[in-house]
Amino acid sequence: MSENLSVVRSRLNRPLTYAEKILYSHLDDPHGQDIERGKSYLKLRPDRVACQDATAQMAILQFMSANMPSVATPTTVHCDHLIEAQIGGEKDLARAQDINKEVYDFLSSSCAKYNIGFWRPGSGIIHQIVLENYAFPGGLMIGTDSHTPNAGGLGMCAIGVGGADAVDVMANLPWELKAPKVIGVRLTGALSGWTAPKDIILKVAGILTVKGGTGAIVEYFGPGVDSISSTGMGTIANMGAEIGATTSLFPFNERMYDYLAATKRKSIGDFARTYAAELHEDEGAQYDQLIELNLSELEPHINGPFTPDLATPISKFKEAVSANKWPEELKVGLIGSCTNSSYEDMSRAASIARDALDHGVKAKSMFTVTPGSEQIRATIARDGQLQTLEEFGGMVLANACGPCIGQWDRRDVKKGEANSILSSYNRNFTGRNDANPATHSFVTSPDLVVALTLAGTLNFNPLTDTLKDKDGNEFKLSAPTGAGLPANGYDPGQDTYQAPPADRASISVAVSPESERLQILAGFQAWDGKDATDIPILIKTKGKTTTDHISMAGPWLKYRGHLDNISNNMLIGAINAANGEANKVKNFATGEVGAVPATARDYKKKGIQWVVVGDWNYGEGSSREHAALEPRHLGGIAIITRSFARIHETNLKKQGMLPLTFADPADYDKINPDDKVDVMCTQLAVGKPLTLRVHPKDGKVWEAKLQHTFNESQIDWYKDGSALNTMARHAEE
Ligand SMILES: O=C(O)C[C@@H]([C@@H](O)C(=O)O)[N+](=O)[O-]
Ligand code: SF4
């Protein structure tokens, strides 16, 4: 990496940010690569790939079509998304192992066959396991999950991608990324009292908004960094996904060294120390945008509802609750998720719970606890935090995503009933946790979750308000305390890791043709070389259209390996601009109103291609490529929006769709849901806009200019029908 970096330094002759040092030291061709931030497509060689069980299925099904004996880059698969939270950790895990047996067997056998490490159900959430075992300062990795950036807590450049991107790296192809801009966040002062690392990213999300980080890496630096633990830095990097950032990262420092040593990787810490000079930004490094945060003045924040960038400082939260008429009663408090489930998070949360118990009171709201990994669970069980949280009223769930991804058998409210929940998670999109669009979900630090769960209401500020103890006397909660690392080291707990066997050739991977959950992928048809004329708009979506709106998780996760079945959830959460409702569109071939997937299937049966029209930051959120595979599978050809989230735009290109943006954003308003359109696909060329000819039902034809970001090789993906088809074609040549 140092050699590559010195080659690039001699070419660029300017100070570099830390993010650039990691990226450019991983270039496939440091001598010849064109390097311009925000413009060039970098060809990179990541050190590692990580996949989780809800995205690994499609990634491995695609890798299988590359006909390779094993993966070319160290890869792991983590079972964390498919465990439903119902009655508590152990029973939920056993139930999941039974329900998901077919998928787990597919994953464990394909991992064994292709030389992939397999982390069984119960091992923990992918991003905690990666931090505990694989992340290292100066490394570059990709993961088929948008919160892969969590590894930024160990100074790694870790980027979320769709499965098709992971297949490139598994198949030893260079991985392509548009050279990101770099946003600097300079931290001064120090965290103290109720202010937690999470509050830094909650504040930054409020500043940058959900699309402010798109196309950029967020790089933290400055004297304030040293007041944050390595897992705290991970929290901040993790939730950088919510501002659309390519990733977020921190410079190597002694807090990272301590975490490496605590997780049996002192040798890596020592090695990083020998390269410390290169594991941070250069003097005079230039940032495309610079934000200053004084941590000594930073308040705790609560973000939401419905979007992770609606940031409210705790001192203003009560008035926001009443001004917006959010449901005041706090129904459920949830701590955990990959964002906040570290030893430090659990220790600080337990210190507040202990304070309450010492005053003879405990949780008023329902309260759930998700340890981030088996190692964390075993250690907080040994050290007592787990028992304290249970005594406080906590239900300990499996070491898994659970309610965060909608894997929650929630019984305390009916669908449609307005209510409020508070979590230490990173995302709070409509319906995400419990499929109830009336659930007001807020994200904050674990500390504030515990404090407000104790009070049972959103109208409580632990910094200023008092509570009544068991005798009715008033008391004020003390600020949380908690060790960043376990004084007696981590307890690894149960061994949940399956290493790939030496002899792999004899292993067979079975996918039953009758399976409801796994389906061998048929290649997509190549482009017919023609313009698409007089085609309908399947739906014009209004407002926020995240990957949760496009391909809902929760109950649909069971079909993540079966493209035809999961396509029945396509866009069912998106709001139709024509009627303000979800999953209700007009079929322009029959005149009937019906569900989006059924309408698309009818068009496909009739050989009618279609487009979707969307608004800003379309495809915000997850890396699930199903959000791109489904419209492709059901006969869509283009998604036309005001702007895209990075991962989703790439996923659409990889699957042979056309992600196009209005050159004039006002054209989004001009186009009507019942217009027919001509997409002049034959005009697709690098750097050239494409024409959309619009035929209003009544009125004269007009034209919109559409922009795109295709480069030469990506245009091949469109012509071949998908990136996989291009890969197969090159392999034959
Ligand atoms: O949907 C998936 O499988 C991946 C997704 C999920 O982890 C999520 O938090 O929504 N993500 O964030 O990329
Ligand atoms: S954000 Fe939630 S669903 Fe996604 S990886 Fe983290 S814990 Fe799992």
Explain this structure.
This protein is an alpha/beta fold. The chain is built from 24 helices and 30 strands. Strand 2, helix 3 (53-64) and strand 3 form a beta-alpha-beta unit. Helix 10 packs antiparallel against helix 11 (266-274), helix 13 crosses helix 15 (385-391) and helix 20 packs across helix 21 (646-654). The longest helix is centred in the middle third of the chain and has 16 residues, at 343-358. It is globular. The relative contact order is 0.11. The structure holds nitroisocitric acid and iron/sulfur cluster. Iron/sulfur cluster binds at residues 80-81, 125, 145, 147, 337-338, 401, 404-405, 426-427.
Structure at a glance:
The chain has 733 residues and is an alpha/beta fold. The chain contains 24 helices and 30 strands. β2, α3 and β3 form a beta-alpha-beta unit.
Dominant shape: globular
The computed structural class is: alpha/beta
C-alpha end-to-end distance: 32 Å
Query: Main sheet, how many strands, which sense, barrel?
Result: 7 strands, mixed, barrel
Strand order of the largest sheet: 22-25-26-27-30-29-28
Query: Helix segment count?
Result: 24
User: Total number of β-strand segments?
Assistant: 30
Bound small molecules, by name, code or SMILES, are: nitroisocitric acid, iron/sulfur cluster
Q: Please indicate the percent range of residues in DSSP E strands (runs of 2 or more).
A: 15-25%
